[in-house]
Amino acid sequence: MQSDDFGFGTQIRKSPYFDATVRWGAQGFSVYNHMYIPRDFGDPVQNFWNLVNDAILCDVAVERQVEITGPDAAKFVQMLTPRDLSTMAVGQCKYILITNADGGLLNDPILLRLAENHFWISLADSDILLWAQGVAIHSGLDVSICEPDVSPLQLQGPKSGEIMRALFGDSIMDLKYYWLREVDLDGIPLIVSRTGWSSELGYELYLRDSAHGDALWERIMAAGLPFGLKPGHTSSIRRIEGGMLSYHADADIHTNPFELGFDRLVNLDMEADFIGRAALRKIKENGVTRTQIGLIIDGEPLKGPNTTFWAIKVGDETIGKVTSAVYSPRLDQNIALAMVSVDHAHIGKEVEVVTRSGPVRATICERPFFDPKKKIAAA
């Protein structure tokens, strides 16, 4: 199949790895942050096993970077998020929430601090570049905001560390979870971080010059083949097992951090101000009316993830919706993330889910479903 066989028009951008992913077997793409993202390398279950047993390389150039620089960069970044960044060191990464004036979630990106006044916000699917530029206009702060020529790859799975050692030598092995390092690979400029959207041991390699995209992909695949590295795509199975959010599915502009159990990412008492502080304080005082829960759904294994929000019912009452559902071959269960009324959010409670095949029984449970302490990723 040729790369030109995929087409939504010129308004959808291709990543520097696009041609390489097609050569290596990408059969289908979705659109994320106005870019193509590979979503099909064959069997998604095999992709899952490749990830959890060996390693996969994923084109995630769709994780666009919002670059914030200037004398007031740190102060400005703090304005965007309710998470206290006062102790964030140069070289550190943090999972943050970006909220609007109503306390609604606009994005849940990774923040990288490259220098004292140099930050990247590594985005989930939403136009935070425009939001940040808009906020900056009347902020009175001295900052520059742009989208740099940066394109991430994710190298994820238990063998990813050994592949990184083969690429960069022993020194890379002391890179800690949620920290980053500037490196050079055969003249290719990179930022490498111990992060990723898989809940497995993993790394993200941020290419800083798109001209090297094809060469970088091939270099990593060549180094990884002896370790069983396969081309792949982000795994819905593994991310739902790990309870990881997919923005627009499990959260959106009408979702607040407390509904997701993200109290630890909201510091209402810090000295610095941030957008949404008053609204979030009021939400916390009043309490939420709905909350995210996990579900085990009975019945035959689901054939792929849900593509609509499934209603959750108790009797004739609709109490919420399934946001992400999939069959986990490792757990041999249909698992789901869902948002339900707090009055019904009781572990062990039985409910009914209206799936595409009709109503089935389900049981509310804890999430994440696997490795809840993130011991695998942080090892």
Helices and strands, with pairings:
Blueprint: H1 18-23, E1 28-32, E2 35-40, H2 44-53, E3 55-59, E4 65-69, H3 73-80, E5 93-95, E6 98-99, E7 105-107, E8 110-115, E9 118-122, H4 128-137, E10 144-146, E11 151-156, H5 160-168, E12 180-185, E13 188-193, E14 202-207, H6 213-224, E15 229-232, H7 236-241, H8 277-286, E16 290-297, E17 310-314, E18 317-328, E19 333-341, E20 350-355, E21 358-365, H9 375-378
Parallel strand pairs: 3-15
Antiparallel strand pairs: 1-2, 3-11, 4-9, 4-10, 5-8, 6-7, 8-9, 11-14, 12-13, 13-14, 16-19, 16-21, 17-18, 17-20, 18-19, 20-21
Helix pairs in contact: 5-6
Protein architecture, described:
The chain has 9 helices and 21 strands. By secondary structure, it is α+β, with helices and mostly antiparallel strands. It folds into 3 domains: 3-64 and 149-240, Gyrase A, domain 2, CATH 3.30.1360.120; 65-146, Aminomethyltransferase beta-barrel domains (Alpha-Beta Plaits, 2-Layer Sandwich), CATH 3.30.70; 290-370, Aminomethyltransferase beta-barrel domains (Elongation Factor Tu (Ef-tu), domain 3, Beta Barrel). The strands form 5 sheets. The chain has a 6-stranded mixed beta sheet, sandwiched between helices. A 6-stranded antiparallel β-barrel has the order 16-19-18-17-20-21. It is globular. The protein starts with 17 loop residues before the first helix and ends with a helix. The mean pLDDT is 96.
